[in-house]
Amino acid sequence: MRKYEDIVNVAVVNFRQVWGSTESNLARIKGFTKQAAKRGADIIVFPEMALTGYDNETDVPYAYKMQLRDAQTTDGDAIAEISAVTKMYGVYAVFGMAERDKEKNDVVYNSVAVCGPKGFIGTYRKLHPALEEQCWCTRGDEPFMFDTQWGPVAVGICYDSYNFHELARYYAAAGARLYLNPTAVGGGPFFDWKEYYMTGLKQIVNSAEIFVASSNLTGFAKIDEEAGGSNDNQKSHGTRFGGGSIILGPGVGDKIHIYAGDVDSEEEKVFMETIDLSLATRRNFKVDSITGRPDYRPDLYIKLNQKLLETEFWKQFKE
Questions:
Q1: Is residue 318 in a domain?
Q2: Given this model, what pLDDT does residue 28 score?
Q3: Catalytic annotation on 126?
Q4: Among residues 32, 64, 96, 175, which one has the fewest Cβ atoms lying within 10 Å of its Cβ?
């Protein structure tokens, strides 16, 4: 059985996207990757849709949406350029993008691309697009882990992580000790995004007993620069993203510990920490000393979900 290293330097980025400006965002993703690598980062996590910007234009027809216009295939310039940086510095960089299907030009996914010391590794396509994302992106249907010297590293995106903990538990059962969460979350006076965000992340640590590295956008979705707008004034509009990039995981005495980051930080910033993955015990997925079997029961969950798919409501969605 392969022995993995335990000690890893992980960086998460509060990233200020420029909506609809792939060129600007790409340059800054590369810049942050280089600087984080020079500071000793092994894995650098950027937010959901960092390459293009997140917000949907509700009044724009599907064929003319920014995400479709700026989507790239996995053999496009963005992945090639970031892969060149990760190869040069021997690091992993994970960033959100609109991914165009190579076979179907009008199919786009809300994806996370992973580049490493040997170049491009692959993409994870968001399984559960949220709200207006569904106006432009197609649902993914496969989990995604990539192999490293620290073991398999898992990827989810935003809504996947907060509302569908089945995914993180699957990854932990499959051997992952680190879960990466590129996200785009924020909100106004009627949505307590910090409570939503932190409760969801802590539940992953609690139920899967693994580390979570979460990277969020910060600042406004759009800036009217011609009108003198900035990330701080009324000429900026769209979603106000909250920052709050954070690394958390199991701590001493079974407590959930914050290793780096700050849920209240909105500044564009890199948070980095050295973590010990041996603390990710994944106890629920190992052989119990009393029963001789794991507490986690995938055979039971298959039966429960099969029963669901035969009910009047769920069978209409059976694929």
A1: no
A2: 97
A3: yes
A4: 64
Catalytic residue among 126, 137, 209, 266: 126
Q: Is 202 a catalytic residue?
A: no
**Which range marks the domain in which residue 106 is found?**
7-288
Asked whether residue 294 is assigned to any structural domain, the reply reads no
CATH of the domain at 221: 3.60.110.10
Quick: pLDDT tens for 8-22.
Answer: 999 999 999 998 889
The answer to whether 158 is a known catalytic residue is: yes
Per the CB < 8 A criterion, the answer to whether 181 and 48 are in contact is no
Rounded to two decimals, what is the model's pTM? 0.93
Is the pLDDT reported for residue 7 higher than 70?
yes
Asked if residue 304 is part of any domain, the answer here is: no
Tens digits of residue pLDDT in 34-72: 999 999 999 999 999 999 999 888 889 999 999 999 999
Q: What is the mean pLDDT of residues 156-178?
A: 96
Domain total of the chain: 1
pLDDT of residue 190: 77
CA distance 305 to 317: 13
Residue 69 domain-assigned?
Answer: yes
Q: What is the pLDDT of residue 226?
A: 45
Given 48, 99, 133, 209, the catalytic residue: 48
For the record, the structure tokens of 33 come out as 């990757």
